[in-house]
């Protein structure tokens, strides 16, 4: 199924810092795709549109703002139930090299560095965050001086890095390594990633961190942002979603390959977490036409 994915060749030239398109339209027609460039995508008057980023499938409201920095991360906005005739879409694409590692390593770029890393899985900003940069986005679309336009883009990224956002795709699906400020958490996460198909116990994982089970549970949630069980389930689901897209394996086989020991339980958890069944998720990707 991997051949169904379009790798977009963007209009961004190697002589430009970024590319911006400001469009008014009535429907979304571009198929699911990925590209090496980072993308900041704003949509207005879009209630009912279905947004797919990696293994995240959501129906959005009137406003949506997403940053994607993962070059292999598939994404698309589909018309779905949207009936608006006045959709506005502002798409900004820029090379990852625009923010060099040397620049991002500076203290003044700490929040941007974290945001860009998180966005490898795709991130969606809260409505308050969208409103925070709305006027700056408008201004950027009309700025004719290239130098000042770059400064405006940096300003937008900085303001967004201080706003609330949520991760969209799972790291397992996006093929992105988890990052943490704790070596013990990274050690446990790596162990889970290498042994997700096995039955993992809390005491076993706590032992890797040289902690009691209760202390480890609190420590893990503090540093990982979710409890151990949820992390394991989300990782397994991410792997399962990737197998649904990239292979022809049956749902039952994928279920057991990913460490779930009950098919009905797998289907139930998948639907609760992804908003659709495994078969429906596969259909979201497989219905796209092949483009060579």
If you had to describe this structure to a student in words, what would you say it looks like?
This protein is about 45% helix and about 15% strand. The protein contains 12 helices and 11 strands. The strands form 3 sheets. The chain has a 6-stranded antiparallel sheet, covered by helices on one side. It has a 3-stranded antiparallel sheet with strand order 6-5-8, with no helix packed on it. Strands 1-3 form a two-stranded parallel sheet. β5 and β6 (about 55-60) form a beta hairpin. α3 runs antiparallel to α4 (about 145-160). The mean pLDDT is about 90.
Keywords for this entry:
17% strand, 6-stranded antiparallel β-sheet, 292 residues, alpha+beta, 3-stranded antiparallel β-sheet
Determine the number of helices (DSSP H or I, runs of at least 4 residues): 12
Low-confidence stretches: none
Tell me the structural class.
alpha+beta
Strand elements, count: 11
Terminal-residue CA separation: 13 Å
Series of H and E elements: EEEEEEEEEHHEHHEHHHHHHHH
Q: What strand order characterises the main sheet?
A: 2-9-4-7-10-11
- Helical content (DSSP H or I, runs of 4+): 40-55%
Describe the largest sheet. Answer: 6 strands, antiparallel
Computed over alpha carbons, the radius of gyration is 20 Å
Mean pLDDT: 90
Strand content: 15-25%
